[in-house]
């Protein structure tokens, strides 16, 4: 009987752990704001969705970016592409040490993806970002500058995908 009680307590503890939480738990009252496909040279890479309580999406509130991949991509490629876009969009040069730290964050949080795999990121105002692969939390980084730079890849007016940005922000149907 003691063993059964200990097992039940252990399972309850594990299920309450943030590592077992789904990204939806971070934005419980959020609604789908917009979604769209990202393609390069006519090849669709992923479908992105923006979830938020507020429209327009505002950096003062939590929101989530949810991506369902159509193509296989290695996590190193995802991180390198992310860093390149962050550098391209930045108003001023970002120190190399900062970029290295942000790349390490991405490598920790990202996984290799195959068609149907899902990665999500939740913006935590004035705190940072939390990443998920499927339903598993893969990283949380208390770095507001990193969080804004990361989400800027999709939300900054200088994004490479302005049509997708409008779709995610709900300004185009």
Structure characterization notes:
The structure is a single chain. The protein has a single domain (26-169), classed as 3-Layer(bba) Sandwich (Chalcone isomerase). The protein starts with a helix and ends in a 5-residue tail after the last helix. Helix 2 runs antiparallel to helix 3 (96-109) and helix 2 packs across helix 4 (144-155). A six-stranded antiparallel β-sheet has the order 1-2-3-4-5-6. It has five helices and six strands, in the order H-E-E-E-H-H-E-E-E-H-H. The longest helix is centred in the first third of the chain and has 15 residues, at 2-16. The protein is of the alpha+beta class.
Kindly summarize this structure in a few lines:
Helices cover 36% and strands 27% of the residues.
Helix content: 25-40%
Strand pairing plus helix content: what structural class? alpha+beta
| H/E series | HEEEHHEEEHH
CATH class: Alpha Beta
Give the total of domains: 1
CA-based gyration radius: 17 Å
Separate helix tally: 5
By CATH, the architecture is named 3-Layer(bba) Sandwich
For the biggest sheet, the summary is: 6 strands, antiparallel
Identify low-pLDDT runs: 1-20
What is the 3D shape? globular
Could you tell me how far the N terminus lies from the C terminus, measured between alpha carbons in angstroms? Answer: 58 Å
Strand content: 25-35%
Strand order across the largest sheet: 1-2-3-4-5-6
Q: Report the count of strand segments.
A: 6
The CATH topology name reads Chalcone isomerase
The average pLDDT score comes to: 88
